[in-house]
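Example for tutorial group B:
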């Protein structure tokens, strides 16, 4: 039950690492728009793609504002 939260936290940390390494995390998050949503099938322990994209965007906004 925690794995979806852990996945979103990994997306948040990945955004921070990518940003600090000079990469564009938002461009990387475009991957989630190209793959099927996991639903409750195989990989159903992963959050919906829309939640993952929103996590990246929200974290990126915090980085740009100097809050992280």
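The residue assignment follows.
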């Amino acid at each position: 039950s925690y794995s979806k939260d852990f996945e979103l936290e990994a997306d948040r940390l990945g955004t921070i690492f990518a940003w600090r390494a000079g990469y564009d995390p938002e461009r990387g998050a475009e991957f989630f728009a190209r793959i099927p949503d996991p639903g409750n099938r195989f990989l159903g322990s992963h959050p919906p793609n829309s939640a993952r994209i929103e996590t990246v965007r929200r974290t990126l906004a915090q980085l740009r504002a100097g809050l992280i």
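The chain is about 65% helix and 0% strand. Compare this with the pattern of hydrophobic and polar residues in the output above.
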